[in-house]
């Protein structure tokens, strides 16, 4: 990639450079949060560049997306959920070195190598602990990633987390605590939609996200199947063909069995997201471990006026705890999911009031205000250290 690409063709200094492994058009809670912050700050006049991997070879090496310059390092191969992209570290360091602030989205294998010796002040956003299946190779991989993230946070002016609840339960808490600032993810309400996914007058339950092990979809399916109503429907939306680390669609299909009330929708395009939420009576996030620290998708459901059933695990339980708009259940407890769905059907909460409380807690404008304060704090601390 040319020096002009790293520095910006016009030679202007970036206000912020965000480095992360996956970026749009890849879809996950982490990438969506990074995208919304990048585009929100760009819309406010900040000059923002994202450095990421070219995880899909059809993507351009450089482009502009909604006012954000995106630079992609080529990928040699994949390793579990991650990618091997040797140029990524060099490109991230070179681009951050010419910026006012660098932002690292953790967990990320390369984080320590990017942050080490960097004079530009760094803001590390720690999303979640890495969780991998048992085994020697995975244990070594987790230890290496943790060590890299720990080094990056030690070199950071600020460590941002989406909730203190999650951070205090993270195995990385000792590295997070000294420089911690809580900034929730910016959550925009979906566009208004029509209930085009609705089939009957029965209870319509929804899930939207990656079809992966940590989402606990088999427990949601079993909990839903215990509902006796033949008119009830479970709508499962999410990509299961292009998922980093592989999907668990076969296990989900096995759990579904012969229940004809359950729909596997696949990827729900952006233009139909409003229709999806408009079709639901209840949204669910049945996560079974602490791989995610917040669950943006449930806050979006609340903003659409849909109550939520989510798992009682650190971070993920926070949107319901903050708004009271739904209920939490024990992770992996199918019977508790059944009871929660029955309770919300029998006594549905005030949807307008729930949406209003969610807007007050998670609106994009308030989060971007907090993030701008955080960036200015990082610049100031960088000057003090300098």
From TrEMBL:
GO terms, molecular function: glycosyltransferase activity
Q: Where is the Glycosyl transferase family domain?
A: 205-353
Q: Which UniProt keywords apply?
A: Glycosyltransferase, Transferase
EC top class, as a word:
transferase
**CDD domains assigned:** GT4_PimA-like
- Which residue intervals define the domain Glycosyltransferase subfamily 4-like N-terminal in the entry? 29-185
Q: What is its EC number?
A: 2.4.-.-
Specify one Pfam family: Glycos_transf_1
Q: What is this protein called?
A: Glycosyltransferase family 4 protein
Origin organism of this chain? Pseudonocardia aurantiaca
């Amino acid at each position: 990639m040319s020096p002009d690409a790293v520095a910006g063709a016009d030679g202007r200094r970036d206000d912020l450079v965000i480095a992360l492994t996956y970026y749009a058009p890849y879809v996950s809670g982490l990438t969506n949060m990074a995208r919304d912050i990048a585009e929100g700050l760009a819309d406010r006049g900040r000059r923002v560049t994202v450095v990421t991997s070219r995880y899909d070879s059809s993507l351009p090496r450089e482009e502009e997306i909604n006012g954000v310059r995106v630079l992609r390092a080529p990928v040699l191969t994949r390793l579990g959920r991650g990618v091997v992209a040797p140029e990524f570290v060099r490109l991230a360091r070179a681009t951050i070195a010419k910026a006012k602030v660098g932002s690292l989205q953790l967990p990320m294998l390369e984080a320590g190598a990017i942050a080490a010796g960097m004079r530009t002040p760094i803001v590390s956003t720690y999303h979640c602990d890495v969780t991998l299946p048992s085994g020697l190779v995975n244990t070594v991989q987790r230890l290496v990633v943790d060590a890299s993230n720990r080094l990056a946070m030690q070199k950071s002016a600020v460590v941002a987390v989406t909730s203190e609840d999650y951070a205090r339960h993270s195995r990385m808490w000792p590295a997070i605590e000294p420089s911690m600032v809580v900034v929730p993810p910016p959550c925009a309400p979906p566009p208004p939609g029509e209930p085009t996914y609705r089939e009957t007058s029965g209870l319509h339950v929804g899930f939207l996200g990656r079809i992966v092990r940590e989402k606990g979809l088999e427990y949601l399916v079993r909990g839903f199947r215990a509902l006796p109503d033949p008119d009830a429907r479970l709508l499962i939306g999410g990509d299961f063909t292009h998922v980093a680390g592989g999907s668990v669609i076969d296990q989900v299909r096995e759990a579904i069995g012969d229940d004809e009330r359950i729909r596997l929708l696949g990827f729900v395009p952006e233009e139909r997201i409003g229709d999806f939420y408009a079709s639901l009576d209840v949204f669910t996030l049945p996560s079974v471990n602490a791989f995610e620290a917040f669950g943006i998708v449930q806050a979006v459901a609340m903003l659409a006026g849909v109550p939520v059933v989510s798992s009682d695990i650190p971070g993920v339980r926070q949107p319901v705890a903050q708004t009271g708009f739904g209920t939490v259940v024990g992770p992996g407890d199918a019977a508790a999911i059944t009871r929660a769905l029955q309770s919300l059907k029998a006594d549905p909460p005030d949807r307008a009031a729930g949406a209003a409380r969610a807007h007050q807690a998670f609106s994009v404008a308030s989060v971007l205000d907090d993030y701008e304060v955080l960036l200015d704090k990082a610049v100031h601390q960088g000057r003090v250290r300098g």
